[in-house]
Automatic annotation (TrEMBL):
Entry GO CC: cytosol
Boundaries of every Carbohydrate kinase PfkB domain copy: 4-290
Keywords: Kinase, Transferase
One function term, GO molecular function aspect: kinase activity
Protein name per the record: Sugar kinase
GO BP terms, alphabetized: phosphate-containing compound metabolic process
Pfam (any one): PfkB
Length: 302
């Protein structure tokens, strides 16, 4: 496999535009409702598949109808779902996202089976054989905070695998806990809020420098409409966002990760990969859901 994603798998139910929750049992008519495969592992995997990469995903879901849907939609998009385990009695993680007219996305969320993913659920040989391994949501997959898993990451990197990591939550305690991964990864891709919580820094640039000192080769902090900040041993560079009409910001971070990973897998340097991540995120922001705007996309044109 070119890319393996490990971590959080979620079913998203999205509706837009939502200006308010109806009172009582009133009904508001909307323009669009979608249901998608999402989460820092599943959403990134679908985006990578749509970008033309060979990708497998690993995680934990329930034995419910939501899990059936998640496997079906990921496979339909071309993701190898053989590494996703089903846990009897657990619910598949799911979110309901009422998207505001400005693209903002409050959420209602059930974490579900993501919380019980463990190292023994993973195909270690597939991970060691990946060209890129993406860890999605290590702040909430507590079972992977395990010395044996860190050893596996080190073995994969020693064999030539590039390891990237994204986060899911905005909870300070979970951000601090995820720091244990930093000596075992190559690139960290948090958003600004996560980077500040993880580092204790006053601004994104200071946060990137502090996090870089803890082990990664690069720290890429996404800044929403301000683009992203890329920190490596060579220095710090700001990559501007593209000026596009925003429909929905759901999954823009996953899309940025997918574009960045696709760039690395296709031989681009770190900055070139960050620019590709920016372009992919801009396409996703123009539609509803974490994979919007990526059907038939030509990477060479981005």
């Amino acid at each position: 496999m070119t890319v393996v994603t490990v971590g959080v798998h979620i079913v998203d139910v999205l509706a837009r535009p939502v200006e308010s929750i109806p009172a009582g049992q009133d009904t508001h008519l909307l323009e669009q409702i979608r249901i998608t495969a999402a989460g820092a592992a599943a959403g990134t995997a679908v985006d990578l598949a749509k970008l033309g990469l060979e990708v497998a995903s690993a995680g934990a879901i329930g034995d419910d109808e939501l899990g059936d849907f998640l496997l079906m939609i990921m496979a339909r998009h071309g993701v190898d779902v053989g590494g996703i385990v089903r846990r009897p009695g657990q619910q598949t993680a799911a979110s309901i996202l009422p998207i505001r007219p400005d693209g903002g996305r409050p959420s209602f969320h059930v974490p579900g089976a993501n919380l019980v993913l463990a190292p023994q659920d993973l195909d270690h040989e597939r991970i060691r054989g990946a060209r890129v391994l993406h860890l999605g949501g290590m702040d909430v997959t507590w079972g992977l905070h395990d010395p044996g898993f860190f050893t596996l990451l080190d073995e994969a990197r020693a064999a030539g695998t590039v390891v990237t990591m994204d986060l899911l939550s905005n909870m300070p305690d979970l951000m601090q806990g995820a720091r244990v991964f930093l000596p075992h990864i190559d690139y960290l891709l948090p958003n600004e809020e996560q980077a500040l919580m993880m580092s204790g820094a006053a601004d994104a640039q200071e946060a990137a420098v502090k996090l870089l000192a803890e082990g990664p080769k690069g720290v890429l902090v996404t800044l929403g409409g301000e683009g992203s900040l890329v920190a490596t041993a060579s220095g710090i560079t700001r990559v501007p966002a593209l000026d596009v009409p925003v429909v929905d910001t759901t999954g823009c971070g996953d899309a940025y990760c997918a574009g960045f990973i696709a760039g690395l897998a296709r031989g681009r340097d770190v900055l070139g990969s960050a620019r590709l991540g920016t372009a992919v995120a801009a396409r996703v922001a123009g539609g509803l859901g974490s994979d919007a705007g990526l059907d038939g996309v030509d990477l060479s044109a981005l």
